[in-house]
Amino acid sequence: MRDWGDGNENKRRPHHPVTSPKAYTKGQIEFTDAVELLGLGWCQGNVVKYICRFQDKGGIEDLEKARQYITMMINNYQSWYGEKSGTTADQEDQLETKP
Questions:
Q1: How large a percentage of the chain has pLDDT more than 90?
Q2: How far is residue 80 from each of residues 59, 75, 84, 92, measured CA to CA in Å?
Q3: pLDDT in tens, 46-88
Q4: Secondary structure letter of residue 12 according to DSSP
Q5: Strands 29-30 and 25-26, bridge-based pairing
Q6: DSSP string of 26-92?
Q7: CA distances from 39 to 28, 32, 34, 61, 65 (A)
Q8: Fewer CB within a 10 Å sphere, N or C end of the chain?
Q9: Helix (H) or strand (E) run with residue 94 in it
Q10: What pLDDT does residue 59 have?
Q11: d(CA 51, CA 92)
Q12: How far apart are CA 60 and CA 50, in angstroms?
């Protein structure tokens, strides 16, 4: 939970349009808290945010935003994460269909 600096860091604040909007909270979990606790980076955090809120806020637009961040992560995989990405599912399908 977010530390509000008033000794109430373990208590959920009431919904507020700026500090704790309803679309960013599911049950007792606020997405920003989950992203921070999981140590996710900017792109990963945005994917989580858009996937979790799409039904309550942005609908298909939020899913498209999540896809944009996933595409960015795929396109920059090696330079950002320092690993080779291996083959994609499409490449694997092509390998299987070749005689």
A1: 38
A2: 29, 9, 11, 23
A3: 999 999 899 989 999 999 999 999 999 999 999 988 876 565 5
A4: P
A5: antiparallel
A6: ETTEEHHHHHHHHT--HHHHHHHHHHHHTTTTTTHHHHHHHHHHHHHHHHTHHHHH-S-----HHHH
A7: 19, 11, 8, 25, 21
A8: C
A9: helix 89-97
A10: 95
A11: 27
A12: 10
Residue 71 to residues 3, 18, 33, Cα–Cα distance (Å): 33, 29, 24
Chain-centre distance of CA 98, in angstroms?
A: 36
Type of residue at 24: Y
Whether the per-residue pLDDT at 22 is higher than 90: the answer is: no
Q: Which two tokens stand for residue 23?
A: 């679309």
Cβ-based neighbours of 62, under 8 Å, separated by 6 or more: 50, 51, 53, 54
Instruction: Give the CB-side neighbour count of residue 80, counting CA atoms within 13 A.
Output: 13
What is the pTM for the complete model shown? 0.62
Distance separating alpha carbons of residues 15 and 21, to the nearest angstrom: 5
